[in-house]
Design goal:
Elements lengths: L3 E4 L12 H8 L13 H5 L3 H18 L6 H11 L1 E6 L6 H10 L6 E4 L6 H6 L4 E4 L2 H9 L3 E5 L12 E4 L2 H20 L1
Parallel strand pairs: 1-2, 1-4, 2-3, 4-5, 5-6
Helix pairs in contact: 3-5
Length: 194
């Protein structure tokens, strides 16, 4: 059974706190990963959103290029690519297309469809891609997707530890993600037989 897997990039394939060192340097702050308890970076750093946007305009490309890959993400994505249809679905803006492709190449990640939405709203794209499972780190996205009927694997981060609803499963690693997907396929197959 070949599933359509939609996969977010930032915080899901990347290390979720990769931007912190550069942000701390830039703003003269001293926030640690344990302090990142909400998704909005300007709130975490206690700065104005305009200041954050300036920072991102200046250093966004560098941040994306220097982002580290989460442990085991590369090897698991390769394995998943053999069995399923993968799609990267990111809220990044279209001007980040080039660096995103570069980064994917640099880390030898599967070269599959890249959907750069420029918006956090991912339900429409999930529908278009007939998504079976969405892998995501942003809590609000997970809720929206689950409410629209999609199955979501929410990869654990300090900023997404809110109560989950039906359709969302919290996972802690890419090994976990692989096991959840394998179990899902087994369940779906046994449903078909029954
Ligand atoms: Mg993300």
């Amino acid at each position: 059974m070949r599933l359509n897997l939609c996969i977010d990039i930032d915080g899901t394939i990347t290390e979720p706190y990769y931007w912190l060192k550069l942000a701390n340097q830039y703003f003269g702050t001293n926030v640690s990963p344990s302090g990142i308890t909400c998704y909005e970076i300007h709130k975490v750093l206690n700065i104005q959103i305009e200041e954050y946007l300036n920072f991102y305009n200046q250093l966004g490309e560098r941040l994306h290029l220097e982002a580290e890959v989460r442990q085991d993400a590369g090897i698991i994505l390769k394995r998943l690519e053999e069995q399923h249809n993968l799609h990267y679905v990111t809220a990044r803006e279209s001007k980040m297309t080039h660096v995103t492709k570069e980064w994917i190449k640099m880390h030898d990640l599967p070269k599959v469809g890249l959907h750069i939405l420029g918006s956090h709203y991912k339900v429409k794209k999930a529908e278009e891609l007939e998504c079976d499972i969405f892998i995501e780190d942003r809590y609000e996205n997970a809720l929206e997707l689950a409410l629209a009927g999609f199955k979501v694997l929410l990869i654990d981060c300090n900023y997404n530890r809110s109560p989950l609803i039906y359709g969302i499963t919290r996972v802690y690693s890419w090994i976990d993600i692989y096991e959840e997907i394998t179990a899902y396929v087994a369940r779906e197959k046994s449903k078909k037989i029954a």
